[in-house]
Q: What sequence folds into this?
């Protein structure tokens, strides 16, 4: 299990909301954590030393920098103010505490640099832009499992991932996990 390799795009907290922490803690696995908020990236670097922490946004934009709206509840931070506005019960855009310019990498540029020889588990949590990111990710990148925040748009994710050889494997209230069918 210590050979498990993961990529978590939108890592946020080192363990509290992490999709990969148990792989790291229980099995000694390691991977790449992406976090655009500098303070959170620093915390990840200090608390997850076996992981590579990349302090940037990953998007479908080819611009070298992008504006990130940092929400009071940092897990709601996004490059999309429109997406943040949907969380009225958490204060919506009224609770944006900062807007920062951060380094940006197009998803394929990021994957070309950080994918490595293989990836067992890809977690994508980029607040409302998960489907767009996965639709633009080059088919050459074939992680065994892909987890995404579905926001009740499961069929949209299935339409993107089925032609690439993935099937819905598991579903929670928040996330959908797709498995590469060749593994079955």
A:
């Amino acid at each position: 299990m210590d050979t498990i390799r993961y990529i978590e795009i939108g890592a946020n907290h080192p363990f509290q909301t992490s999709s990969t922490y148990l792989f790291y803690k229980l099995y000694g696995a390691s991977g790449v954590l992406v976090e655009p908020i500098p303070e959170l990236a620093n915390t990840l670097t200090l608390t997850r030393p076996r992981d590579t922490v990349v302090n940037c946004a990953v998007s479908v934009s080819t611009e070298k920098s992008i504006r990130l709206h940092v929400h009071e509840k940092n897990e709601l931070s996004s490059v999309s103010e429109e997406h943040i506005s949907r969380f009225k019960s958490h204060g919506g855009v009224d609770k944006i505490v900062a807007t920062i310019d951060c380094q940006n990498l197009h998803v394929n540029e990021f994957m070309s640099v950080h994918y490595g020889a293989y990836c067992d588990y890809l977690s994508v949590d980029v607040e409302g832009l998960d489907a767009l990111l996965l639709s633009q990710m080059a088919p050459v990148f074939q992680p065994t499992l892909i987890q995404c925040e579905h926001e009740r748009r499961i069929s949209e994710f299935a339409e993107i991932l089925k032609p690439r050889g993935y099937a819905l494997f598991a579903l929670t209230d928040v996330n959908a996990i797709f498995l590469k069918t060749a593994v079955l």
In short: The first strand starts at residue 5 and ends at 9.
